[in-house]
Amino acid sequence: MSAGHEIVQHVPDLAMTTDELADAAGLFDAIVCVLTDRISEPVLAAGAAGRLKVVGNIAVGYDNIDTAAARRYGIAICNTPGVLDQSTADLAFLLILAACRRTSDAEADLRAGRWTGWSITDHLGRDVHGAVLGLVGYGRIAREVARRAAAFEMEVLHHARHDTGLPGYVARLEDLLPAVDVLSLHVPLNETTYHLIGRAELERMRRGSVLVNTSRGAVVDETALIEAIEHGTIFGAGLDVYEDEPAINPALLATPHTVLLPHVGSATIETRTQMARLCCEGVNAVLSGRVPENLVT
Ligand code: GLV
Domain 18-83+269-287 is of which CATH architecture? Predict the structure, then answer.
């Protein structure tokens, strides 16, 4: 790093346990981590007892960090907003297309040798063009999804906690749910969004609708989602995030009409490079007494 800091890298590139993190936290001025590292209260306490001043999270979401504890201990937290909006929106739109058109089911059949020839009734999905898209949360990523949807001639509605004052705003989530063919989630995970989409919400959705989640797994009650798809309450789902990732509910693997990706929303060489750079810039700024734009707390 050009700022002249000494860097100690944890090898291998695997999430550290709380004990490992707590043992290390007090030895460093800064930690650069990823969303699989749980920066919990004991880790921050150990850091505060040592020399820890800042934690940089190479992610826009920071539900892996106890921000209230960080505030108490005076440890700064940085994240990576802005630089992953387009690639995450691309991935969300990929899931919209893939879930509506059932591409995973179709490809699995082809690869397994189950495809016996063109059939007028095989692998029937849902049209994306002309469908109504509902965005839950209307931050930067959701707005990028809306731009892509416009090119597919979708009608776009959105719900957010605060009135955006923009066309397509729906004040109540319960009113958005029955009005859309595709529901795409773009909210951070916190106590107000945990299981935001559960059984009651799924029951309000259109029978032919599709749920897409590129935010955090626990925003959706996965058990309720599996039941909803199996019972035909909704048509299907495209997921990039899971309640207990990397563990995947085995029932989900067996659920038809699903497209399942391993949390790759921002996984392009260009975007991950920019995320790492932005995170380290924030950390450097804090270490040199400046307030970075990507300061969370
Ligand atoms: C990825 O999930 C992120 O929050 O950046």
Answer: 3-Layer(aba) Sandwich (3.40)
Write down the pLDDT at residue 295. Answer: 96
- 56-92 exposure pattern, b = at least 16 Cβ within 10 A, e = fewer: bbbbbbbbbbbbebbeebebbbbbbbebbbbbbbbbb
CA pair distance 70, 41, nearest whole angstrom? 8
Q: Are 59 and 112 in contact (CB under 8 A)?
A: no
Residue nearest to atom 5 of ligand 1 (CA): 59
The percentage of the chain sitting over the pLDDT mark of 70, rounded to a whole number, equals: 99
CATH numeric code, 85-260: 3.40.50.720
Indicate the domain borders of the chain: 18-83+269-287, 85-260
Could you tell me if the CB of 104 is within 6 A of ligand 1?
Answer: no
* Core vs surface per residue 197-235: b (16+ CB within 10 A) or e: bbeebbebbbeebbbbbbbbbbbbbbebbbebbeeebbb
Can 18-83+269-287 and 85-260 be said to share one CATH topology? Answer: yes
Q: Which three-class secondary structure state does DSSP give residue 152?
A: coil
Please write the tens of the pLDDT for every residue from 90-106: 999 999 999 999 999 99
Residue with tokens 């899971």: 242
Distance 124 CA to ligand 1 centre (A): 32
For the question of residue 293 being annotated catalytic, the response is no
Residue for token pair 């997921």: 239
Q: Is 243 a catalytic residue?
A: no
